[in-house]
Amino acid sequence: MNTEDVTSIQRLAMAGRLRETREYLGLSQEDVAAVLRVPRPAVTNIEAGTRKVEALELEQLAKLYGRAVDYFLRGEQ
Predict the structure, then answer these.
(1) Taking the model in full, what pTM does it have?
(2) How far apart are CA 16 and CA 10, in angstroms?
(3) Does 77 score more than 80 pLDDT?
(4) From CA 18, how far away is CA 47, in angstroms rounded?
(5) What is the tally of helices (H) and strands (E) in the chain?
(6) CB under 8 Å to 70, separation ≥6 — which residues?
(7) Per residue in 14-73, pLDDT tens?
(8) Which of 26, 69, 66, 32 is nearest to 47 (CA)?
């Protein structure tokens, strides 16, 4: 497995954790988009793993979701 494959797997895992946490909290993609100040399709793409998450966006998401950044990056509680 090459570096590109590993990065893709990690991005998809993070995307899944972001989506699951948002849904668990009962937030809509529209709610999240408003906080990030991005269009709703950007949140859809982040959660699909097709759009990279900027560091500042990840920080905002972690704060909004009440989780550590490491949880989204590595799945660590």
Answers:
(1) 0.91
(2) 10
(3) no
(4) 6
(5) 5, 0
(6) 76
(7) 999 999 999 999 999 999 999 999 999 999 999 999 999 999 999 999 999 999 999 999
(8) 32
Three-class SS state of 36: helix
CA distance 68 to 6: 22
Residue with tokens 């966006």: 57
Burial group, residue 73, by CB count within 10 angstroms (0-12, 13-18, 19+): middle
Distance CA 66, CA 15 (A): 16
Q: Share the mean pLDDT of the chain.
A: 94
Q: Which residues lie below 8 Å from residue 48, measured CB to CB, with a gap of 6+?
A: 15
The pLDDT assigned to 25 comes to 98
User: Residue 76: pLDDT above 80?
Assistant: no
